[in-house]
Amino acid sequence: MLRAEIDRIFQPAYFLDMATRSMLKVSLPPDLDKFVESKVASGRYQSASDLIRDGVQLLKDRELSRQAALDEVRQKIGVGLAQAARGELFDGEETCREILEKL
Predict the structure, then answer these.
(1) 3-class DSSP assignment, residue 25
(2) Domain segments of the chain: what residues?
(3) CA dihedral in degrees (72, 75, 77, 82; nearest 10)?
(4) pLDDT tens string 17-50
(5) Burial (Cβ within 10 Å: 0-12, 13-18, ≥19) of residue 86
């Protein structure tokens, strides 16, 4: 059964990367522990560390994407507020009516 230690000390890659990586202990509930074990056993990952690194990278990518989307929304809100301050507004009811007429 997988233990809480993710990095396996006896892997050659561990020794090569030891100076640039930090060791992290992770506690997993049984269902995630079994999932990690099954992925390593299937050959998809060479170690639990590889799987965890991949998962953390996916989470990082998702967070960066989310932040970029939020930044874009904030920028568009800023443009809209600037337009409103200049009086460049649309009548909401009239705009909805025009859209519905086109449908």
Answers:
(1) strand
(2) 12-102
(3) -160
(4) 555 777 888 899 999 999 999 999 999 999 999 9
(5) exposed
